[in-house]
Design the sequence.
């Protein structure tokens, strides 16, 4: 999927979320129950279809959680601190994902956010044009979700599943890098 296709999907999801909220239909708060309800070639989803993590009893994490760790520490930790623990510059995303839904997370990362008033001067830039973030947005979400639920400790996960063929194909399709 190209970056423009991703933008369309995310804008569509954000619109569906906004219209659902406006209609008064109840929606789950936060990231919800992270329990794995389905699996598709190494990618896991919860009962609501949101991406989630899988950590084996031996501490082995799924590929996407590991990839999320790598991508988070490539682009996000500069502001949000190591392991999603926050900094004086930006909030702890490991805490934010306790109350932030998957759709809202995607919307904020894609479109950015401003919280500027007399007490705040916080601006999250939009990453819609950053292939290194957008092509791996689900991975970053899954990693932060695992951190929010204390499913994994801080630091590089010591063991992970092998990269699925589907992940290789998706990466090539989205980034254009073989």
Sequence:
């Amino acid at each position: 999927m190209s970056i423009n296709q991703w933008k369309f999907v995310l804008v569509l999801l954000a619109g569906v979320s906004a219209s659902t909220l406006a209609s008064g239909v109840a929606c789950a708060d936060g990231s919800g129950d992270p329990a794995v309800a389905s699996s598709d070639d190494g990618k896991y989803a919860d009962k609501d279809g949101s991406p989630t993590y899988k950590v084996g009893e031996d501490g082995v994490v799924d590929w996407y959680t590991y990839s999320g760790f790598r991508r988070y520490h490539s682009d996000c930790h500069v502001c949000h601190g190591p392991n999603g623990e926050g900094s004086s510059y930006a909030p702890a995303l490991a805490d934010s994902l306790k109350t932030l839904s998957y759709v809202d997370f995607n919307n904020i990362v894609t479109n950015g956010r401003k919280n500027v008033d007399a007490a705040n001067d916080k601006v999250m830039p939009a990453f819609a044009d950053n292939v290194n973030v957008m092509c791996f947005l689900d991975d970053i979400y899954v990693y932060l979700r695992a951190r929010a639920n204390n499913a994994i400790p801080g630091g590089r996960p010591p063991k992970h599943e092998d990269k699925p063929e589907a992940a290789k194909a998706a990466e090539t399709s989205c980034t254009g890098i073989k």
About this structure: Residues 4-29 have pLDDT under 50 and may be disordered. The chain has one domain: 3-15+36-164. Residues 3-22 form the longest helix (20 residues).
